[in-house]
Amino acid sequence: MEAALKRVVGSLALAGALLAGGMAMAQQPLKIALIYGKTGPLEAYARQTEAGFMLGLEYATQGKLEVGGRKIQVILKDDQLKPDVAKAALEQAYGDDKVDIAVGTTSSAAALAMLPVAEEYKKILLVEPAVADQITGDKWNRYIFRTARNSTQDALAGAVTLKDENIHIATLAQDYAFGRDGIASLKEALAAVGSKARIVHEEYAPQQTTDFTAPAQRIFDALKDKPGRKIIAVVWAGAHPLPKLMDLKPERFGIEVAPGGNILPVMAGWKQFAGLEGAIYYYWGFPKNPVNDWLVAEYKKRNAGAPPDFFVAGGMSAALAVVEAVKKAKSTDSEKLIAAMEGMSFDTPKGRMTFRKEDHQALQVMYHWKMKANPPDNVDLLDLVREIPAGEMKLPIRVKR
Q1: Domain named Leucine-binding protein: which ranges (predicted)?
Q2: Cross-strand pairs, 70
Q3: Do the two domains 30-149+287-364 and 153-280+367-392 of this chain adopt the same fold?
Q4: CB 184 within 8 A of CB 154
Q5: If 128 and its partner were Cys, which of 11, 117, 318, 347 is the partner (CB 3.0–4.6 Å)?
Q6: Which fold has domain 153-280+367-392?
């Protein structure tokens, strides 16, 4: 009798220990690595991404910062915009920190170095804000998802604004993955939207270029005698060359500049160019939806009235995608996450995004803008010409599955 009682007590103790262990496992934090280029010329992009990501987690969890009973723990890693550092940071995040999901990074070159690591560890990497087409193109693997737009989405949106007859274009871009991808994508996009515009010259300059006299002269020479509209299309990250190009007076040759979109401090330097047009990923005053309403109000409240910028929206979109994916999968197992995320739609400050099943690229709207005639300050800068629906931008599938 005593032996039987001991066995019962022992069994109950074991069951209790297993139950406690299971509860402890259930309460393990949900670990997310946010890898970004906080050191270097794109620091502003990284800070915005971090701010938006944290706000997105707050919004998606109603301030609780937990999913399925698991507290969210964000581990920040600065890759300094260096591919080797980014690769090592992701290896450390998956291997040592045991993160469930990683998000990043700022530089396209650094992001490309991270892709094989996600495949090696069989863990999800959500790319934000790097845009090179190769990320969801020929360098892609099934563990990669991207909330950031890609170069082709930028190009397709820009091409929509360049559909007039008889346009000649010269391009200026940075001489690395982002810039070269951007120009290649622009060529394809012009054809895809049925534009009659022709690219007659391509100019690539080092990322740190500050004197644009020589590149501009080559561009002017290529365009000045062409008939019709003559446009310089610029693909550039960081300190933008537009003011320096305008100082060289392209208008004397009848040449316009199409700068694309950028962060507010950069576009504030364009205020004197009334009527300037382009396409942009996000501008705080354009989207009309509850998520953006909350973001604008909350960000202004916490930042002395300043509105959220370009990469704040991107960071928030990434966080909203992560939380929605974990909720839908009811797990952080990679295979269950992939199954949940392929084709998944989720709300963002730009409205609904959808991860395309074929390459995990988020399909999303873009915006055609025009610089206000007399901007009242450094943030109220743009008028919306038109929201460009995702379905209007026929995004090619570049991966082989």
Answers
A1: 29-372
A2: 67
A3: yes
A4: no
A5: 318
A6: Rossmann fold (3.40.50)
Pairing of strands 66-67, 124-127: unpaired
Q: For the chain, which residues make up each domain, given as ranges? A: 30-149+287-364, 153-280+367-392
Q: Where do the DSSP E strands lie in 212-302? A: 229-235, 255-258, 277-280
pLDDT digits (tens, 9 = 90+) for 47-92: 999 999 999 999 999 999 999 999 999 999 999 999 999 999 999 9
User: Which carries the bigger pLDDT value, residue 193 or residue 385?
Assistant: 385
Query: For residue 65, which amino acid is it?
Result: L
> In 167-247, which ranges are continuous DSSP H helix?
177-192, 213-223, 242-247
Residues 147/126, Cβ–Cβ less than 8 Å:
yes
Say how far apart CA 372 and CA 204 lie, in whole Å. Answer: 30
Sheet holding 144-146: strands in order across? 66-67, 70-78, 30-36, 101-103, 124-127, 144-146
All residues at 6 or more sequence positions from 122 whose CB lies less than 8 Å from its CB, including other chains: 143, 334
Q: Is 161 left (phi over 0), alpha (psi -120 to 50) or beta?
A: alpha
Judge whether 342 and 357 are in contact, CB under 8 Å: yes
Separation of alpha carbons 62 and 376, rounded Å: 35
* CATH domain 30-149+287-364 topology: Rossmann fold (3.40.50)
| Beta-sheet pairing, 167-174 with 229-235 | parallel
- Residues 326/67, Cβ–Cβ less than 8 Å: yes
